[in-house]
Amino acid sequence: MLCAGGKVVSVGTTREALGDPWFRTHRKNILEIDCSGKVAFPGFVDSHTHPAFVCPRLADFEKRIAGTTYEQIAEEGGGIRSSVDAVRSTSKDELARRILAAFHEMLAQGTTAVEAKSGYGLSSDAELKSLRAIRLAASQWPGTVVSTFLGAHAVPVEYAEHPQRYLRLICEQMIPQVAERKLAHFVDVFCDRGAFSEVESLKIFAAAQRHGFGLRAHTSQLVRTSLAKLLSFDPASLDHLDRVDATDISNLAKSQTVATLVPGANYFLGLRDYPSARKLIDTGVAVALATDFNPGSSPTASLPFVISLACTHMRMSPAEAIVAATINGACALRMQYRKGSIEPGKDADIAIFDIRDYREIAYWVAANRCEMVLANGQLTIGSRGVASKQRWPP
């Protein structure tokens, strides 16, 4: 693989590389990375994360161990709302520092492109601050960040008695402000029991679409929501999808929308059931995998771990899971023209793992074997040592 200017120039055999006209012109300045005995993947694309938070939710964790459900915890004042006060009281710079730390943890495990949501501010000021913090962190990270506005994550406490007022605030103030400041690429909504109804979600979709945003939604995690009306807006991705039926799957298969599955949440919540990946794939739905990195239900930054979960708990093959974490993740962000595969003209995003067979990425559970990463052509060293470098010709 020849890379220059942050892009992949050509892909082929060593003989073909040596004969490449670009190589002959630039051979004095070429640096070789020897990947003998290793596997090079396209950089992973984590298309669903919530990094704009401050503290872990340890009290919720202990309650869940004791048998309290996710929904009961939320009703008792835990869950999403319990992260709000800390985000509101934390400075943009401190929030950005924590977000950047999460990005670096992802990068060290092979992730080179990340979708990052707001959603723990739940006020105009705090949501805008969160998005600015994501942008600040992104400017200091070699990978690529796609930002998403998730003011519709939950109804904050101060609007608990008047949720329609908060809905109007999202549609009439927050979304226009985010658009005016160009702080996000997508608008997301948590369309599920205890969050926003289908009718409310469709209003948010309509407001977001009027302002030129791409659309995505958390849905059918706790209870089924028919996907037909959400799909009529052509969202880039519908996420979770634990409780979909044959009609939903058929409608997804006929659409351009990616089904993004987040088995890390099922694992951390101690759930027995996982999304029906096999039914989705076998029906022709494009499936992506993401970490759902967040403090409440999936505190993992490791896509290799999620790939392993997908194989063992959702019966995806290693090849299917790798596709889901690379090119399909890029499709979920509508960035497949730049990300998700190693092809000439695409961004030089390559993750090199100290394994001899691609299937080992799923086999070694919760082990980080990432040795080095190219993110937009910038070389970073993983957790397993120093890159081998030498000039061409050898």
What does this 3D model show about the protein?
By secondary structure, the protein is α/β, with parallel strands linked by helices. The relative contact order is 0.16. The two termini are 16 Å apart. Helix 8 links the parallel strand 7 and strand 8. The protein has a single domain, classed as Metal-dependent hydrolases (TIM Barrel), CATH 3.20.20. The longest helix is centred in the middle third of the chain and has 18 residues. Helix 8 packs parallel to helix 9 and helix 14 packs across helix 15.
Helix segment tally: 17
Strand order of the largest sheet: 5-6-7-8-9-10-11-12
CATH architecture: Alpha-Beta Barrel
- The computed structural class is alpha/beta
Q: What is the assembly state of the chains in this entry?
A: single chain
N- and C-termini, Cα separation: 16 Å
Strand residues, percent:
15-25%
How many β-strands, per DSSP? Answer: 16
Q: How many discrete structural domains? A: 1
**Helical residues, percent:** 25-40%
The CATH topology comes to: TIM Barrel
